[in-house]
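Why do we care about 3D structure at all? Because function follows from shape, and shape follows, mostly, from sequence. That is the central idea of this module. The next example makes it concrete: a single protein chain, its amino acid sequence, and then its structure expressed as tokens.
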Amino acid sequence: MKISLVTPAGKQSRAGNRTTAVRWARILRALGQRVAISEADETVDADMMVAVHAWRSAPSIRAFAERHPSRPLVVLLAGTDIYRFQHSNPNETLASMERATALVCLHDLVHRDIPRRFASKLRVIRQSASPLSAPRAPSRRAFEVCVAGHLREEKDSLRAALAARLVPVDSRLRVVHLGKAHDESWARAAAAEMERNRRYLWRGEVPGWQVRRQFARSHAMVISSVMEGGANVVSEAVVAGLPVVASHIAGNVGLLGDDYNGYFPPGDTAALAALLRRAETEPAFLRGLAAQCRRLQPLFRPAREQAAWRGLMDELVGGAFRAGC
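And the structure:
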């Protein structure tokens, strides 16, 4: 089967949309399918389309649906689709959801936040991650906390840095931030924060192996987003055995569970500072977060993600998929 996989992120991008598309292409190829990744529909005569992002990929979704109304069309609901664009740009976003044969989401709570009429189309496929190549060895010089993600509004990217300003002077907390600035204003803000905050280091965009190396030397990871569709850095941290400190939003709770103990209210700098201080000074608390993450690891195994895709493909195309058409 020939699959057109459309993503709004270009080849050189390390954004989540591109990472997701590349991993899905690898999974689908392992299942015997032919996959072509593009940034927009290229009018190839594909047997099926998988589109990352309902709003940003709306023109490609519309073109494929009009040209091949009986062929399967899978649409990934990104966090901005769910929590922004279905409200700010409803015509295009909801039209993409209407045209989809199936809607894929990345965490368990998406059904609460989309129109009820789409519930029967919704399928949860959690993003997987591979274990670190060596055991973690957290820094002895500092209590290192990493933030992995592009600097942008949705990520509330400087929240951990601001929280680091509030810890006591005897704290060994150090925030290491890996990620590309969305624009020049974010770059200036991060640079300015480093100037005034000795506990914050922004390293910019780095390759994946450097992110994994930082995971290995960190004591915890902070994800401070105000909206998420189900961030892959959460699954990567969980599989790496790295405790997660997360904003209490649907996209994080849908991955970590209601009973996870490492949440803080989104945007609450003081609460995050208190949680980081507790993680630094209460070893039992940090061990407890790590134990909760370990229990979640089976949910993010590559074999589970591949099985979910096999099940969806089987559901959509049945015998045609099994025959490898």
